[in-house]
TrEMBL record, chains A, B, C, D:
One of its GO terms (biological process) is regulation of DNA-templated transcription. Gene3D superfamilies: Metal-sensitive repressor, helix protomer. It holds the Pfam family Trns_repr_metal. Signal peptide: none annotated. It comes from freshwater metagenome. This is Unannotated protein. GO terms for molecular function: DNA binding; metal ion binding.
Length: 99, 99, 99, 99
């Protein structure tokens, strides 16, 4: 009945990820308020660094769980697709490094 | 009557910055939805890269206007503080590079 | 006689990696020359971006081969250490993101 | 008598920059040795992060001196080119952020 019975690599921590992203959403709203209230440029930049770091933290967590579950799963059950999966994960990491 | 008559370096583009940050806020909400709907890990990571890039774009714009207005202003009107201002801006850039 | 009979994940491409790193070494020597010859600051910065990108490219390749060989190997032959290995790889990716 | 009367922003620290870049060159040679000696992937990645961080440190120093000298100089002596110079510096920072 469930199209995705196993869920994703991050399934066990879904609630925690959504909570972290909600906090990040609040930080982005805080940035709007800072601009609206003419906060000093450098303080806005410091806060953007904090939000970026928080987002990257979420990304690193997702990468970890993707490798631990999805990639390792493919290694066992679907070795034909393993190279594709690792390649895909690597491209995602490369995109994070460039963003 | 205005506590900050000169405004900040980004003052002329305040509305545009707030609009960009509102779009980023929507993207962060989109990330929560993606997690909630069990979107494939790699697609979530791709979207996180896009949000990070958008945030960095805002930061680069703020740095540009800070240098163009605040730093250049200090060079003319407050040379004693110029070194401090440039040092402070450089530290903000270093933080962005590490975030 | 060989302390590391299996080699590392990157073993099949050792020569290619060393060649890439030799080119990067040449680029770093080029940077010294640029500074020595009073090259315009912005042109030095552009070249530093190119070297950083080349280094990150090497890192991304190593991550890919580490996951494809070492992590997948642990999944099959040493499942007790799998979590440690993925955690260790994730920490390395996090360090790259912050560097 | 001075081949470069204006000098670059980094002129007063030329020797220090060349020394830092020489150390980075040595670190890149160290990376080649690590690969050649089959060092564990994660240890190579850790070292790449250190080299990248050292390179970014040089870049941040150059940005600081470029703004302090070249940009501020343009503000005083060549205001027509100020916007171009700040735009150019900002683009260099954006490239660093993406590298």
């Amino acid at each position: 009945m469930n199209a995705n019975p196993d869920g994703r690599g991050y399934a066990p921590d879904k609630a925690a990820y959504i909570k972290r992203l909600r906090r990040i959403e609040g930080q982005v709203r805080g940035l709007q308020r800072m601009i609206d209230e003419d906060t000093y440029c450098i303080d806005v930049l410091t806060q953007i660094s904090a939000v970026t770091k928080a987002l990257q933290g979420v990304a690193v967590g997702l990468v970890e769980q993707h490798v631990k579950h999805c990639v390792v799963n493919a290694a066992t059950n679907d070795p034909n697709h393993l190279d594709d999966m690792v390649g895909e994960a690597t491209k995602a990491i490369a995109r994070l490094l460039r963003s």
